[in-house]
Write a structure and sequence with these properties.
- By secondary structure, the chain is α+β, with helices and mostly antiparallel strands.
- It has a single domain, classed as 2-Layer Sandwich (Alpha-Beta Plaits).
- Helix content is 21%, strand content 14%.
- The protein is built from six helices and nine strands; from the N terminus they run ββαββαββααβββαα.
- The strands form four sheets. It has a three-stranded antiparallel beta sheet. A two-stranded antiparallel ribbon has the order 1-2.
- A hairpin with a 4-residue loop joins strand 8 and strand 9.
- The mean pLDDT is 87.
Length: 203
């Protein structure tokens, strides 16, 4: 999950924009993979099989959302194939191949929320099965179709034809200062973040 600070125009207030892989229904990343290492499952998850990935990075260029990362970090404990490796968890990570959000499909099978949704202190992230028309953030469960209608949800850069499976709910009432998330981080990181916020506000 990457979290960006957004400011669409000089007059608007900045806001945070969390962004994971959108698990697109028409994923350009899958189309360009020369070895079938990244693939779309029938449950809508787009996954990467690191055992097949050759690290060509075609998918990194093809994804319009910058959702993929190259794992440059060597993993000393990993030598060849690991019997415990699974594309559903991407663990253990592998040097020189591609990583990204895997939609926490292993947790979904156990009836658990993804780590991002379960750990969000503001309950911002909802997760669910569109066929069941139900989403939850762990605190409340809502009807998906009603939620996206009531809140005028949109899909990021939908016009590209990628058909993302992540929807954004525009704020209707900002009930907390967006800097509140800075309360629980180190002094050094807070300074860096505040500098970034001030810089954004000046633009
Ligand atoms: S967001 Fe990018 S990496 Fe994820 S499925 Fe869509 S094109 Fe592929
Ligand atoms: S980097 Fe890996 S997953 Fe991406 S296109 Fe190349 S082989 Fe496929
Ligand atoms: S916690 Fe799971 S669903 Fe959330 S961004 Fe990370 S991999 Fe994706």
């Amino acid at each position: 999950m990457k979290v960006y600070l957004m400011k669409p125009n000089p007059e608007s207030d900045p806001y945070w924009f969390p962004k994971n892989c959108f698990h697109c229904d028409n994923p350009p990343c899958v189309k360009v993979c020369p070895v079938g290492a990244t693939f779309k499952r029938t449950d809508n998850a787009v996954l990467v099989d690191a055992d097949r990935c050759i690290g060509c990075k075609f998918c990194v260029s093809a994804c319009p959302y910058s959702a993929r990362i190259v794992n440059w970090i060597d993993t000393p404990s990993y030598s060849g194939k690991d019997p415990n490796y699974s594309p559903e968890t991407s663990v253990p990570s592998q040097h020189g191949v591609i990583g990204k959000c895997d939609f926490c499909v292993d947790r979904a099978r156990e009836g658990k929320l993804p780590y991002c949704a379960a750990s969000c202190p503001m309950g911002v992230i909802y997760y669910g099965d569109r066929n069941e028309d139900s989403v939850t953030n762990g605190e409340e469960t809502l009807r998906f179709s009603q939620l996206i209608k009531d809140r005028a949800a949109f899909r990021y850069l939908e016009e590209l034809g990628t058909q993302p499976n992540v929807y954004y709910l525009p704020p209707t009432e900002r009930i907390f200062p967006y800097e509140r998330g800075l309360n629980n981080i180190s002094e050094e990181k807070r300074e860096t973040a505040l500098h970034s916020i001030q810089h954004t506000r000046k633009q």
